[in-house]
Structure formats: structure tokens, C-alpha cells
Amino acid sequence: MSSERIVKLRADIERMRRMTPDGFADEKQAASYFQEKEEMLEEIVRTLDTVEDAMTTEAEGVKDAVKSMRESLRHLESGARQLTRKDVETELGKALCAAWTGDRNTLGELKCVPNLKSENWNNPSDFQWTREKGFVLRKKDTPVEPMGNMATNEQYLINPIYESVIMEDAARKSVMMDLVNHIPMKGPSIWIPERDRGGVSLKWLTQYGAKIEGSKPSAPTRKELKAYTLAGFIPWYDEFEEDVFADLGKLFMSEFTESYGIEFDRQCLVADASPFTGIMADGNATRHRVDCDIKKLSYIDFRDAEIKVPAEERKSCMWFFSESILNRITNITDDEGNPIWRRPGDSMPGLVDGYRYQECSLLPGFADVGENTPFAVFMDPRRIIHGNRKGIEIKRFEGTTESLENGELFMRFRKRDGFMISRSKGNIVVMQTEAS
User: Fold this and answer.
1) Is the dihedral angle over the CA atoms 22, 27, 32, 35 positive or is it negative?
2) pTM of the model
3) Coil, strand or helix: which one is 222?
4) What digits encode the pLDDT tens for the residues 273-302?
5) Could you give the CA distance from residue 262 to residue 362 in angstroms, rounded to a whole number?
6) All residues at 6 or more sequence positions from 85 whose CB lies less than 8 Å from its CB, including other chains
């Protein structure tokens, strides 16, 4: 192994040390962290074992470093502090005030990092805070470098621990977040291969010596999933700086999760190319049309819509509609007088015609459904792909009309996401009324 490879392995171990958190929001997050680090260490050890020309002294040095890192992880695991919700709210509130006043010392101690103005946001693991040098950055092939004068930087990425708690809250506010397919994104876009059902061609051989015909998967369609930046603004008042930090953190989490949860559902279900297209506006989804008078909705409409989805796909499908549409459905019976709706209870989900359902206030209500109006969806929600580029940025923001006219200030937050519908043709049905 060349000395350059040894140096790289040492740099990887050092980067792992700098990524060590002070605490965890819950046991699940802690377990995930320790498993990830152990896998990284195993990969380093495998690299050493597979190289025959490794210089003995340097290789042994790396192995000693791995041993030391494992011992430190065991020590951290036994003594790691589990943050209560109150702890997270307090530290987040303290970080918000520090970002507002430009207190980089407090931000550094809370493991929030500067986010430099660029298309690709900074990676928190590349930064470290020291009281002597302030924020320092380690590039791939250079030693630790001070960031220098950061007086003009006003935007910071919050500690990933806080982000984890915030997103768990947002999932509880959202209908779709726990149902869709999440894909991590390290860049502004990724290409996802999309195959038709039955992409591999299979051949039977009926006798020995028979010629094997060529068999290969059908070429997949590659679709680009792009992530865009979503920004929100929370009004900020001077009085906040005198509030208890926990109250301020709680306020931010409440405002963020409420608005983000609703926007997440909007992009999945009803968005119309702004910048994503939700399932209701998707041109490839199958349309099942019913009488323009929605009061005539019957169980036959549901049966006919469901049968348009192949059986193997249908097993994972759910209905999505508004609460007032559900209220109408509860009164629908089949020809034998049996209701098609089963209320949830005894740890069982509610069912419509044997399939689970979800209510969403963003979908049209009973009074809103007129002619040619889509109002319900039957699909496997995993057909919706959410591209998640981690990182929540906060910044003091004054460049608004309200600031100029009324002196109102805002704390801006930003997050990056992408949404895409996969294989909607033949797999997703949108129920909509006929045009008269």
C-alpha cells in the first residue's frame, strides 16, 4: 500500500473522530450512529488486509488508530447522554439566538456549522469548532485550515441531532411522509432507473442440448430526480432574545413542522409543476371517471377503479381522499346492504372496500367536487419518491418588504427536497367526475 493510501485511511479515522456527537435524541438514533461507524471501521480493516504491499510500520499505525477509535466508541456508547425533548428545544433555541446575534462561539459549541454561499451546501462533518481558531475546515488533501474572517456569513446548518427530532415531528404532521419512498441525495440530482413490470425475460429448456435463447432485461427508463431549496420565514421580535431558550426552540419546531408537513403532502398529492407534479396532476395516471353528480357514487365505482391496478400491485395500494369524501363513503353499501367502509379499531386500520385509506385535507372536499374534478387516488404510496438532501439552514433575514415598510424581521429556514412519481402508468388510479 502506498503512503498516500495510508494517509487517506488516517484522514478517514480522524474525520470519524470529529463526527462524534455529544448526545443523541433517542436510542434509535444512537444505535444507527454506532452501527454506521462500526461499518466504516470494518471497511478500513478490510482495505488493510487485502493489500499485500502495505508498509508494515504505517499499516500497524493505522490498525492501532482503528483500535483506539473502537475503544473511544465503546466509551461513548456507555456514557452517551440521551437528550430529552426539553434539551433539544433548549439547545435549538440557544442556536437560533446565536445565529441571530452572530455568536459563533455558541454556534460552534452547539455543533452548528457555517453554510457558505454555494449551490452545494457544506457537509457538517467537514467542520470543527475550536476556541483557539474558531471554525476550521479539513479538505481532502490538506490539513485543518481556519475559516478566517466569517463576519459576513449569516447562515448556519443546525446540529443534525436537532434536525432528526424536527423531522420526526414533521412526519407526525404529514399524511404522506411515513408512507412514501425516501432516497438520500448527496448532490442536486440523481438518475433513477425505472423498469417495466417483468423486465427479465425467462426461457424454459425442454430437452438437453437445446439452444439457450438470449435473455436480458429490458432497458430501463432513466428519470432524473432533482432537489430544490424550500425556504420559509418565521417572524422574529426583539422580545425573543429575552425568552427562555426552550420556549423559542419549541416555537420554531412547531412553526417549521406544521408548514413543512403540509407542504410535503402538497408536493406528493396536488402540486402542479411548482416545481414538482403531484399525483392528482400526473398525466400518466389512469383516470377512472364517475357520474358528475358525486352523490351517485357507489361501491361499483370503487370496485371498477381498483380492478384497473394489477393484482400484484393492488396488494400494497391505499385510498386517499378528504374527510368529507370519507363521510360520504361511510353511507355507501353494496347490493346486499353491507357497508364498504369498516371503521378502525382493535389495532386494525380503517378499510374502504377492503383497502386501507388515508384522509388528507388538501384533497377536494365533498362540496368542492363538481364536473371533471379529481377527488380520490388509489395507489401504493411508495410509488412517490422523496429525494432527501439533509440539512436545515437558519439565517437572520431582513431583505423583505415587511422589513422595509414595517420594520418586521424574520428568521429564515431552508431545506432541500425532490419529489418524483415512479411508474404511475397502469399502477395508479385517480378517481374523477365526468364532464357534463
Assistant:
1) positive
2) 0.77
3) strand
4) 889 999 999 999 999 999 999 999 999 999
5) 8
6) 165
